[in-house]
């Protein structure tokens, strides 16, 4: 018997960067994200003589997946498993493959082993594996905040169907993991403390913008959060400079479009790709403008999608 689950990456509009000095992989900042459609991690779990992990066709010894299984086995009786996971987009290049991967893994193991976990419980196990994965349990607009740090669905994808143009500027795997990068920022960035202190207000304001479907307000807060986070990254030792020339060209193009009246804003995670969030009526002009920029390798136009779920054979 095999069990298959699918989950989508999510993109934070209010970013999580930094962890609290507590067990359980607790973020230092609240975050608010949108779950995408089209891009997905598909994870199939089956019984096996020993644990086996196959990622994108290659058998791997992935310490984060092993740690996730160990954590689940601390609470549940889980036999040895074969885990086969495929991403239909580049792994570890700032497209949140860990978010969709762990949301799909926890959802598949939950069903395969009859663990009967609720969505909030799955969100906690996904978060412990990768902070942003907590949010991919749900679709649409999702919040992740204290005191419990369980993801919370804020608005469905259908209620406010935004589009996202992803501009790929580099497909190499990132050199520094998010956890190592966050640790460097916590220890060394002079901007880390104000980043943590001010993100709580950004989060509350962004929640209101989502509830009110106020695109301009959400865009202003999202660009602010993105640039603040990159300011922290760039002021850490060693400095994390994720941007390529094309990343910066995309930011300027988005701002120029907005000056021309197009409803669009950008966000960038721990990688060189730019995600331009827009209203459906602006999708064609945004996609065309980013695609023509030198250094933009490809663009993907996506919508907002659903949370992690089982795939029925
Ligand atoms: O989920 P992690 O531990 O890989 O960290 C994600 C960090 C960012 O993508 C940069 C921001 C976020 O909130 O997703």
What does this structure look like?
- This protein has 313 residues and is α+β, with helices and mostly antiparallel strands.
- The protein is built from eight helices and 14 strands.
- A six-stranded mixed β-sheet has the order 6-5-7-4-1-14.
- Helix 2 (97-112) crosses helix 3 (119-129) and helix 5 (192-211) runs antiparallel to helix 6.
- The structure holds (3R)-3-hydroxy-3-methyl-5-(phosphonooxy)pentanoic acid (PMV).
- Residues 12, 15-17, 31, 96, 98-99, 130-132, 178-179, 269-270 line the site of (3R)-3-hydroxy-3-methyl-5-(phosphonooxy)pentanoic acid.
* Quaternary organisation of the protein chains: single chain
**Small-molecule binders:** (3R)-3-hydroxy-3-methyl-5-(phosphonooxy)pentanoic acid
What's the N-to-C terminus distance?
11 Å
Strand percentage lies at 15-25%
Largest sheet: 6 strands, mixed
- Work out the count of structural domains: 2
CATH-defined topology of the largest domain: Ribosomal Protein S5, domain 2
Cα-based radius of gyration, to the nearest Å:
19 Å
Helix content: 25-40%
**Helix-and-strand structural type:** alpha+beta
Give the number of helices.
Answer: 8
> Which regions are unreliable across 5 or more consecutive residues at pLDDT < 50?
none
Strand order of the largest sheet: 6-5-7-4-1-14
Note the overall shape.
Answer: globular
């Amino acid at each position: 018997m095999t069990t298959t689950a699918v989950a989508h990456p999510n993109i934070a509009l209010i970013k999580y960067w930094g962890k609290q000095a507590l067990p359980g992989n607790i973020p230092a900042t609240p975050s608010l994200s949108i779950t995408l459609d089209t891009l997905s991690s598909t994870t199939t779990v089956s019984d096996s003589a020993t644990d086996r992990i196959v990622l994108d066709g290659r058998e791997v010894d992935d310490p984060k997946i092993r740690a996730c299984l160990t954590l689940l086995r601390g609470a549940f009786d889980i036999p040895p498993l074969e885990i086969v996971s495929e991403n239909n987009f580049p792994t570890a290049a700032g497209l949140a493959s860990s978010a969709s991967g762990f949301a799909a893994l926890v959802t598949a193991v939950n069903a395969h082993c009859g663990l009967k976990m609720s969505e909030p419980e799955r969100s906690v196990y996904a978060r412990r594996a990768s902070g942003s994965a907590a949010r991919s349990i749900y679709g649409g607009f999702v919040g992740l905040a204290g005191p419990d740090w369980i993801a919370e669905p804020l608005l469905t994808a259908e209620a406010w169907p935004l589009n996202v143009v992803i501009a790929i500027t580099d497909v190499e795997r990132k050199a520094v993991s998010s956890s190592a990068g966050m640790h460097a920022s916590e220890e060394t960035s002079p901007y880390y403390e104000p980043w943590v202190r001010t993100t709580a207000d950004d989060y509350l304001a962004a929640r209101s913008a989502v509830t009110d479907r106020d695109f301009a307000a959400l865009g202003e807060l999202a660009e602010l959060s993105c640039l603040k986070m990159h300011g922290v990254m760039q002021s850490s030792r060693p400095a994390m400079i994720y941007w390529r020339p094309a990343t910066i060209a995309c930011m300027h193009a988005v701002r120029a479009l907005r000056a021309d009246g197009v409803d669009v804003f950008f966000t960038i995670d721990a990688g060189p790709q730019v995600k331009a969030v827009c209203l459906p009526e602006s999708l064609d002009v945004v996609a065309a403008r980013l695609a023509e920029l030198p250094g933009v390798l490809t663009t993907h136009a996506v919508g907002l999608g659903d949370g992690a779920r089982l795939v029925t054979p």
